[in-house]
């Protein structure tokens, strides 16, 4: 029987990331960098046998009025369209507005906890075989990073 364990998300090398000396390390989805107001998406993350994912979101320099919304999307195998994971988004009503670290965890059977600007989000759902991370930076530049671990 194969040995199974939680794994760091393989580096997707997203086209929107700013290169750093850590940009190719496993677990890094978006390495630390300042990004202007825009939408950033990682490259596809391929998941062969894990049920969930935990994202660690670090916002350590939020400009005045800056916001950060992080979500997970899965790819429909028929149309290839990207579909948001139900509940798999940091709270849109109260996005990041301060220096902080929170998590977004998607895993079947989780006790659901709707996060907000200062608390982590827990979602009871699966992640599909192909998913990606989407980050929306609003108003002003935000320095942030996103790391991930695939969960059995």
Description:
By secondary structure, the chain is mostly beta strands. The protein has a single domain (7-151), classed as Jelly Rolls (Sandwich). It has no helices and eleven strands. It has strands at residues 7-8, 28-35, 38-41, 45-46, 52-62, 67-75, 82-89, 100-106, 121-123, 130-138, 142-151. It is globular. Residues 14-24 have low confidence and may be disordered.
Mean pLDDT across all amino acids? 80
The CATH class is: Mainly Beta
Class by alpha and beta content: mainly beta
What does the main sheet amount to?
6 strands, mixed
Number of domains: 1
Tally of helical runs: 0
Summarize the structure.
The protein has one domain (7-151): Jelly Rolls (Sandwich), CATH 2.60.120.
How do the helices and strands line up, and which of them pair or pack?
Elements: E1 7-8, E2 28-35, E3 38-41, E4 45-46, E5 52-62, E6 67-75, E7 82-89, E8 100-106, E9 121-123, E10 130-138, E11 142-151
Parallel strand pairs: 8-9
Antiparallel strand pairs: 1-11, 2-11, 3-10, 4-10, 5-8, 5-11, 6-7, 6-10
Give structural attributes.
single chain; 152 residues; mainly beta; Jelly Rolls; six-stranded mixed β-sheet; five-stranded antiparallel β-sheet; 0% helix; globular
């Amino acid at each position: 029987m194969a040995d199974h364990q939680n794994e760091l998300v393989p580096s997707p090398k997203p086209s929107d990331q700013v290169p750093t000396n850590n940009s190719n390390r496993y677990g890094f989805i978006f390495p630390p960098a300042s990004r202007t107001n825009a939408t950033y998406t990682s490259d596809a993350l391929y998941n062969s046998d894990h049920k969930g994912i935990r994202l660690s979101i670090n916002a350590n320099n939020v400009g005045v009025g800056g916001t950060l919304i992080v979500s997970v999307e899965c790819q429909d195998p028929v149309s290839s369209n990207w579909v948001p994971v139900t509940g798999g988004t940091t709270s849109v009503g109260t996005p990041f507005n301060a220096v902080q670290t929170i998590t977004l965890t998607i895993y079947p059977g989780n006790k659901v906890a709707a996060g907000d600007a200062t608390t982590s989000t827990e979602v009871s759902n699966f992640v599909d075989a192909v998913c990606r991370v989407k980050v929306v930076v609003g108003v002003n530049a935000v320095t942030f990073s996103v790391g991930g671990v695939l969960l059995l």
